[in-house]
Amino acid sequence: MARQSEPLAQPPIPVLVTRPRAEAESFAATLSARFGTRVRPLVTPLIAPRFLSPVIPAKDYAAVVFTSAHAVEGARRLGVPLPRLAWCVGRKTAAVATAAGFLAKSADGDAEALANAIQADPPNGRILYLRGVDTRGNLLEKLNSFCMHTDVAIVYAQEPQLLTTQALAVLRSPEPALVTLFSPRTAALFRAAWPRDGQGNLHVAAMSRAVADALDDLPRATLAIARQPDAAGMLAAVESLLAGLPAP
Known about the structure:
It contains nine helices and eleven strands. It has helices at residues 21-35, 69-78, 91-99, 111-120, 139-145, 165-172, 184-193, 209-213, 231-243; strands spanning 13-17, 39-43, 47-51, 61-66, 85-88, 103-106, 126-132, 150-160, 177-181, 202-206, 222-225. The mean pLDDT is 90.
């Protein structure tokens, strides 16, 4: 009697990681550690930081505010004296600020949580908000509405990047693929980069509802929105998407 052939194993599912390169490589490593051979992370940054050199007002600041790790790096590159106290939007940014020599406090949330945390424990003096060109959350307006006088200096810009050839090939394949999108801007860039001959067997993990909304009419099979806006939330979103796909 002829032996029945064994069913073919499913290949690893490609997961496009669209963050700036350093963060993308870190998250790709986390994906591999969490899901093993179930996934094949592909780093394809859609933005890359370009650091700027603004003139910092000659004022006696009591604290700086950071909403990203890139802002911390931009502050470090300025080479000017800054206050040690740093209010940070989340733990990752706070960890980077601590490594850069700041006395960092984390709001463990978004811009609104950061503004509320600063209001609950305000610094004794003026605040310097160091940020990128593109921001969300109206943090400056929130701080000034709380009568906490705040100046802004823009220390970096995020330059758009093209999808890699490998990523485009994945999107043109009929096989399932995942994409992780961490910001409304990268979601909009991804939508704009979608190839005309894209197959649409795409499963999207979005950091927030605002990220998902920025995708507009992007062809997709399924969507998972992170329950919390951090790496752990995105890992859980990826896991929920994988649960609906054939196992290797």
